[in-house]
Design brief:
about 400 residues; about 30% helix; 3 domains; 9 helices; Transferase(Phosphotransferase), domain 1; Phosphorylase Kinase, domain 1
Amino acid sequence: MDDALVSTDGLPQDLTANGPVAIDNFTLTRRLGAGAMGEVYLGSESITGRGIALKLINRRINADDVSVRRFLREIEVMAQLVHPHVALYAGHGVWHGKPYLAMEHVDGPDLSTFLRGGARIPEEAALFLIIQVAEGLEYASQRTGLVHRDVKPGNIILDLAGQAAICAATRAKVIDFGLAKFQEIADFDDIHFGNNRTGAVRDTTDQASAGQVVGTPAYMPPEQVRGDKEITFSADIYSLGATLFHLITGRVPFDGRTPALVMVAHLQDPTPDPTQFAPEMRSATRDLILRAMAKDVQHRHRTWDQFISAARAALTLVQQGPTRRITRKPSDPISDKQVRIRAPEETSRIVKQALGDAKPGQMSGSDALSQLLAKRLSGHVAPPKDSPSGPGTARWGRKPG
């Protein structure tokens, strides 16, 4: 072992302290973080030039250590995940006897950046992003049986597509599968890697999974608080529901002076009604959050598809809601345009009234009834092309400076 590569605090010395370093097909330019288990570096792939983040196991850890075996298993699984909403695998190898994993580096902020100081994200934008994250987690679960176990705003990176704000072109990507668990392997436990910069709780033993508590307290489902051995995708649904709660209300579901108090609240206290903190929230979004955060796993959404369908329905209702504001690019001559979209209950009233006025021969699919409805619904404006349902530059939140 080369002890010169270990600093006085026991952490690995920065490999890039004296300039870029080449590891196989990757060139490392800057260290992003370091912890007891290893380091994370920013770099690029030599052939393609694409940006990568490379995780390297600490040189001081024995090759036979259980953590190394877990890391190798993570590499094996991550190599199978190819999805637009999961940070992509870029390569792996062994450098000086220590394994590394290179992943796509997303050049953008994480969602927690938009929540500083109690800031909130508009309901429409929050649902738009949460659906993407859910699709990535659903894919990972179906493909490998993976349970992330640390879903939170800080583990959702945003590709803003060159814009300064969240817009319809924004793409969310799930990162940091360092606490992931694979359902099909009963004795495969927690993967621990990198700098614990997010306040996540990580166990420090190599014992079996039963009784261990891992995750981030603010978003942790009751079954993780208890240290249950059987952790399924439903745990990620709970954490994603807690994340959505935070995005829209600007606060976490449960707060406390210590992580332990927060975890006890997740375990025992009723989930707060998010409309207490965001009165304008639609009932469909409220129901989505409360069901996702049910204490009993059996009362949550039974599948990822069920959660995603409910989230899409909630997003549709938001897009159809009363007047909402769309801020266009500064270069666009039309600024802060008000788009009026009838609320669902108003549309329903007009449709019922039109049906009541229809003559007996006018069935629901007839041209005459269609014309009657069109007249009664005059003033209805379809969602603009730059809404989340289509491409464009509608913006919901500017990245804090």
